[in-house]
Amino acid sequence: MEIWINPACSKCRAATAALDEAGVAYSVRRYLDEPPTRAELEDVVARLGVEPWHITRTGEAEASVVADLPRTEEARGQWLDALAAHPRLVQRPIITADDGTTVVGRDPESLARVLPPA
């Protein structure tokens, strides 16, 4: 299992605590220090079953780079490029289980999808 985190994020800390409590082995990727590539982002959105704008943090200062982009298939590549160039815009934490299940682990229901049954 892998989790993309920003250590300053309370949701990320809560997610890693839940993984620890469940006894799950996982690797941590500090995605601001080691930004995901466009290909990795493309893979993540595909596994999540969403579009890039669905995992974009539009409240960040850097969001001005996507503010005028339409949420269309034609602009999809521009969204992915923006997320790769500005990783702070990527929603967090993103957790990928060993079976490929991927979630944005911001709530208990999403975390439950990647944790073993209690």
UniProtKB/TrEMBL annotation:
<dbReference type="Pfam" id="PF03960">
    <property type="entry name" value="ArsC"/>
</dbReference>
<protein>
    <submittedName>
        <fullName>ArsC/Spx/MgsR family protein</fullName>
    </submittedName>
</protein>
<dbReference type="InterPro" id="IPR036249">
    <property type="entry name" value="Thioredoxin-like_sf"/>
</dbReference>
<dbReference type="InterPro" id="IPR006660">
    <property type="entry name" value="Arsenate_reductase-like"/>
</dbReference>
<comment type="similarity">
    <text>Belongs to the ArsC family.</text>
</comment>
